[in-house]
Amino acid sequence: MEIQENIVNKVAQSGLVTLDPASFYPAGERLVYDIKDNLYMGLILREKDFREFVKAHDWAQYAGKNVAITCTEDAIVPAWAYMLIANKLSPYAKEVVFGDAAVLETVLFERAMAKLDVEQYRDQRVVIKGCGDTEVPVSAYVELTRKLTPVAKSIMFGEPCSTVPIYKRKDP
Question: Cα angle vertex 68, ends 34, 136, to 5°?
Fold first, then answer.
């Protein structure tokens, strides 16, 4: 007597739509340009010396790269110094932001997610994938939740087989 078992994939039948934030991971090398290397004695930005550096520096080396501009020293750096660097980087770099590497990742993810058509998730039960090989900033999860809340029927975090409820629309 042979017993036949039917294996049922309940996750596939659940109607859940999985959204992986890592799919928004923007390609390209990331660099941090630190103005501290342009400070005199690690404290002061001399305008004349800085302008000479900006004029002579090979900005083409940043072509196609994502660049964050910052100063990691406790020094007073005028806004125009960051503006000069941004001006020289903008013809070459893919993206230029003010801040550290974490700010750069946040901005890159936000810009990529801005292109998301949330209508495809209207009235859907959405699981925002919570783990993977690509590191996703928390800000990306917050942004996805913000964008999906007005359209999704429900939002969960994790994997379809093990989720944490985030939001469920109350039907009238």
Answer: 130
Tokens of 65: 């790269």
CA distance 125 to 140: 19
| CB atoms inside a 10 Å sphere around CB 24 | 21
Task: Report which of 133, 131, 172, 165 is spatially closest to residue 149, judged by C-alpha positions.
Answer: 165
Q: Token pair 């309940």 is at which residue?
A: 10
> Any idea where the domains of the chain sit in the sequence?
10-26+117-168, 30-93
82 φ, ψ (degrees, to nearest 5): -65, -35
The answer to whether the beta carbons of residues 75 and 36 sit under 8 Å apart is: yes
Residue with tokens 């946040």: 106
Instruction: Tell me how far the alpha carbon of residue 67 is from its chain's centroid.
Output: 13
pLDDT in tens, 5-50: 664 444 444 589 999 999 999 889 999 999 999 999 888 899 999 9
Task: List Cβ neighbours of 72 (8 Å cut-off, separation of 6 or more).
Answer: 34, 36, 100
As a whole number of angstroms, the distance between CA 19 and CA 135 comes to 15
